[in-house]
Write a structure and sequence with these properties.
By secondary structure, the protein is α/β, with parallel strands linked by helices. Helices cover 42% and strands 20% of the residues. Helix 4 links the parallel strand 3 and strand 4. The N terminus is likely disordered.
Length: 152
């Protein structure tokens, strides 16, 4: 699984709507971040989270606009594979994103956040954390953070 994720860092591809996100661990996520040659926006979401649903179209549009310059990693937490796959199919059917799953929801905590969703981490190429946004992200904040990443 890690080899597939690392390969995807160079050229992010879309996931078929029926595919559930790949199970992951902190080690996998840290390796993905360290190996990334582009900045990474890592969004933590759950299918049952209403705020996650409200920000999903914004993240989909940003991935479409910046997919050549920024990797978008979507981390599903505290969710079942079927519900996660339906959410992906509804909101990200053709998005250039890497989809991962952390059923227990431990990875965000181990990365320095909490169990709340949504969360959005912004990493420079190579894995340096630049910003952590708690809660729903708005268009202005997302654009400013992506600009910051691209200016580094």
């Amino acid at each position: 699984m890690l080899a597939v994720v690392l390969a995807a860092c160079g050229s992010v591809g879309s996931v078929a709507p029926a595919d559930p996100p790949e199970p992951t661990s902190l080690t996998d996520v840290e390796a993905l971040l360290a190996a990334s040659t582009t900045p990474v926006v890592l969004n933590v979401w759950a299918s049952w989270c209403i705020p996650c649903r409200s920000e999903a179209p914004l993240l989909d549009a940003a991935a479409a606009k910046f997919s050549n310059d920024v990797a978008f990693v979507m981390l599903n937490v505290q969710d079942g594979p079927g519900n996660a796959a339906r959410f992906i199919g509804e909101f990200f059917p053709d998005a250039a994103m890497i989809h991962l799953a952390d059923r227990p929801g431990n990875v965000p905590i181990e990365l320095g956040a909490n169990r709340g969703v949504p969360l959005t981490f912004f990493y420079a190429a190579g894995g340096e954390l630049v910003e952590l946004h708690f809660g729903v992200i708005d268009e202005r904040t997302l654009a400013l953070q992506i600009d910051e990443l691209l200016a580094r």
